[in-house]
Each structure stands twice: as C-alpha cells, then as structure tokens.
Specification:
Layout: H1 3-27, H2 31-59, H3 67-77, H4 84-96, H5 108-126, E1 135-136, E2 139-140, H6 142-145, H7 148-166, H8 173-187, H9 192-202, H10 209-234, H11 239-266, H12 269-272, H13 278-281, H14 287-315, H15 321-339
Antiparallel strand pairs: 1-2
Helix pairs in contact: 1-2, 1-15, 2-5, 3-7, 4-5, 4-10, 4-15, 5-7, 5-10, 8-10, 9-10, 10-11, 11-14, 14-15
This protein binds geranylgeranyl diphosphate.
Length: 342
Amino acid sequence: MTNEKKHDTALFSLDSNYARLYHSQYLHKDNDAAEAFKKIHKEAMLNRVQFIENYLNQTLLQQEIPSRLSQSMRYSLMAGGKRIRPMLCLSCAKICSEESETQWLSVLPFAAALEMIHTYSLIHDDLPAMDNDDLRRGKPTCHKAYDEGTAILAGDGLLTDAFYYMTSCDLPAKRVLEAVRLTSLAVGSQGMVGGQMLDLEAEGKQITHDELCVLNAKKTGALLRTACESGAVLTGANEKTQKAIAEYGKAIGIAFQIIDDVLDIEGDTKLLGKNVGSDTNNEKSTWVSHMGLDGSKKQAKLYCDEAVQIIEDITDNTHDITKLAEMTFLQKTAHDMAHRVY
Ligand code: GRG
C-alpha cells in the first residue's frame, strides 16, 4: 500500500470513529463518549488539516516550476495558515454528500486550490503598492523574503495553478464546472479583486456603512462563501441545501471580517502572525471605526449565531451520524470565531 493510501485509510477510520462517538454522546447521553468525542473531534480535524497540508506540499513538487518561483510559492503557501477555507469546503462537502462515505475526498484538490487562491491574495495584498506589510503568517512577507517581482509572480502562479487543481477533481464534470464558475465569480473583478479595488479607493476616506458592507462582502466574504458553496455543489447537494450552505458561508464571511477588524486593534502580533494597527495606519474605514469595539463584537456574535442556526436547520431531520458529527465542525468554527474577540 502506498503512503498516500495508508493515510487515506487512517483518515477513514478516524472519521467513522468520530461519527460513531458523536452518536453515543448525543443519542445515548453517554458521558465517557462525550469526552472521547471532544478528543477525537480535535484529532480528526488536525488530521484533516494535515491532509490538506500534504496535498498542498505535493502540488509544489512539480519539476517544471523554475526553482525561485517554486521556492517563493512554497514559502508563502506552507507558512502555516489556518486552512479555514479548505476545511470549510471539505466539511460542507461532507455534510452534503449523499453518494458515498468517501465522496468528499474527491473534493480535496478543489479545497486545496482555494487555499492557493487565498495565499495569492495575501501575497499581493502585502505588496508595497497595496497594504505594504512586512509580516505575514509570522514570517517576513513574500516580497521581503524575495523581491517584489518574484512575489507578484508567486501570487500569479498560485492563482493560475489553482484552476488546474480545481479542474482535477474526480467528480461529475457539470458539478466541477459550476463550482469553478462560482469560484471565478467570487475571486475575480466582481468579487475579491473588485473588493480590493474598493479598499484601495477607500483609503483615507470615510465610506458609508453600506459601502463598507459591499467592500467586505467582496474582499473577504466572497471566497469564504464560495468555499462552502463549492463543497455543496461538488457533492451534488439539492438547491435548497446549496442555498443554505451559501448563507452559512455568507454569515461566516461577514463575522470573519468584523473579527479581523477587532483583532487589528485588540490582537497580538505574535499570535496573529501579522502586524496589528494597519487599518488605522492606512486610514481605513472598518467595522470598528463605524460601530466601535463593543458594537462590532456584538455584530460578530449575531452573525456567528446565525451561521450556527443555519447548520442546525440543515441537519435537523437527518439521522446520518456522519452529517451530525460534521455539524460540530461547522458550528464550532462559528463559535470559535466569536470567542476570538469575546
Ligand atoms: C490582492 C486581489 C487581492 C485581494 C486581497 C484577502 C485580501 C484581498 C486581503 C487581505 C486583507 C485582510 C487581512 C483581510 C481580512 C480577512 C483575511 C483575508 C484575513 C486573513 O485570513 P486568515 O485569517 O489567514 O484565514 P491565514 O494566514 O490563517 O490563512
């Protein structure tokens, strides 16, 4: 058995054990199982992150990438991000999957590609012509570690390669096409790139709250939302579930940006791995400048609660323990996000 296959097998057994313990904890009110579930939840999620890491790592082993380009792409991609977008994509795929217990694994190349797009956006966002930051993921930013030209190309390489991996999923072509279409829309000029443009234009200006919401929805929200929605689309979820998952992603996306704005004031550079105070230095309108710290925290909590409720509603009538167990991850993501600022 190859190492990759061995890893897959370990992941399956961990995942089915995870679902089994969920069942005992909640349906049989078994306290020992509750403790075991907490432990295995953490273990299963760390294992899933490792799975994403392994996949990302191997995408950069292509011999044909010029060495400096491959090193700079690896430098930023493997710098230890939280991998929230691929985790959301895989978890939404799992909660929607109707076909086989292992179907969600075919979504992995797509999920990993979302992290490549996210990393490209961070590299370009940090450039002197944009936010001009010198610390990211606890390390010097890509243009500081290499040079501006290399950092621009590292971002370009990650963005473009992402489409190669997205279309490499072993899933029905119609679903892959729809997920790629949604993702292009989310990260292109109508989505993330458009949001970044609005962000540049808003520097040093006061914008209205409605304008701020549009900016954030495009710049940060669209990729998080598409991460969730793609998971549902790729696994063939029905229209109602797809819509609900997209709403979950939207709520998570707004909460994520509010929390980022709060942490830019209250956060710790060491823990965040990036400099704080950059919004104030760049004279940006943020949730905090519009609603204050407490107001922003309250809003973040409301959006996180909304996300929790949406998942509750999706899983309400199911007896599928795999889906019920997965609910924990999606709800915990929302809870944990709110707790970062509470
Ligand atoms: C350059 C086209 C282009 C877009 C840039 C992503 C982005 C748009 C700007 C980043 C500015 C920023 C800090 C936005 C707040 C939300 C955000 C994307 C935070 C970083 O994401 P995390 O916390 O980071 O998931 P890790 O490092 O864990 O992946």
